[in-house]
Amino acid sequence: MLSVSILDDDPKIIDFFRETTFDTPDVVCVKTAQTIEDYFMQPLKDEGADHFLFLDVHLGDMSGIASIPEILESYPKIEIIIYSVDEEYHHLITAFKLGAVGYIIKQFNRELLVSYFEILSKGGAAISPQMAKKLIYSVNESRIDKQLAKRFSTKELQLLSLLSEGWTYQYIADNMDMSVDGVRYYIKKIYKKMKVNSRAEAVKVFQNLR
Question: How far apart, in whole angstroms, are the C-alpha atoms of residue 138 and residue 142?
Fold first, then answer.
């Protein structure tokens, strides 16, 4: 039995996902939520079991990708599949760096979603063809400074992801449960590691780490 849940701010997507699981043998949807707060208010029935969470990139004013570390901290065995209309390259790379194991482009196509369920049930990786192509390109044409990338902590990567999406320091502080001064402290550390002096330079370097 494949256990799945979905975290998406679009009720139509949630309804489509739930209905598809109802019609699919050996697949059970154990949880749906539109916000990260709602998701955590509904504990999984068996937190130790293998489970796949389909997570949207954007949750209203929140970043789904930036929530990955928090979700994995609460549910270490969960497998996170990004499920989004967003095909941005840097979102794909950041999601995988933070711990996601798949990236699917949303389509109202039951057969396609069922095919991904079958892939997951057999131990395969769920990734849309267009995102797989971007991932292959990143491997073949990588310009990553590996030594620099290794020096980023999970929290620094989370902060960089939010920074690159254009969020304010106050929003980042609220999203990462720290003070604005704490955000400034981490940003100074990041600037020093990157050898840059501005937000624009830091974002450019971050997006080129691929």
Answer: 5
